[in-house]
Amino acid sequence: MRVAVVSDIHGNIHALDAVLQALAGEDADELWCLGDLVGYGPRPNECCAAVAGRASVCLVGNHDLLALGCEVLEGEFNPDAAEAGRWTRSALAQEWRAFLEGLPSHAEVDGAQLFHGSPRDPVWDYVLSREGMVEALELTSAPLVLVGHSHVPFAFSAEGELAFGPALAGAEAELADLRWVLNPGSVGQPRDGDPRASYLVLDLGAGRASFRRVAYDVELTQREIREEGLPETLAARLATGV
Ligand code: ZN
Question: pTM of the full predicted structure?
Fold first, then answer.
């Protein structure tokens, strides 16, 4: 089975559309989403609709919770993210609010355990360090552990092999019989210096993980961010992928 894995879409429908178009040529049987469909970006409803119509598994992320109105959470976010969270809360249609409210914080499917954050804290914790990657394997048992949240793609094996960031663009990892922690990177707001949308294709039968990047119309999303009056920094960062 071939599975496309996406995460951290963040209301960027043009990035998501580019990924979905690229996936048309990937022969993927399923789409899994690791959360943060909304927040930061200008098109939250369209992103929810696109994921709801295609994903067989979808998790909730911290920005999704913020958009659902947990005002007590605002202190957990920087001012721009909190402002975008308030905007998203007012822009989100009832249908997609209900969809986000129904999402689980973690899932286990086809030999993989899925988290937005980490096994320690599925929504809020970041897997950024080698220690965090080791811990993610220790706290789980499935052959594959998938996490998002940091917006930086990485592949870490139980033997300590690690690759991350733009170096993974177009790279393939042979999963063999090892356990792995993988992060597909971010569709809608990459932070590894490569502004292209990031995603992952898993061939579970062949034991192969393929990291992909696809260019999208960054300027169009930037224009929409400005039209909605969202913070300028959220538009500017998309050009450089930081
Ligand atoms: Zn995110």
Answer: 0.96
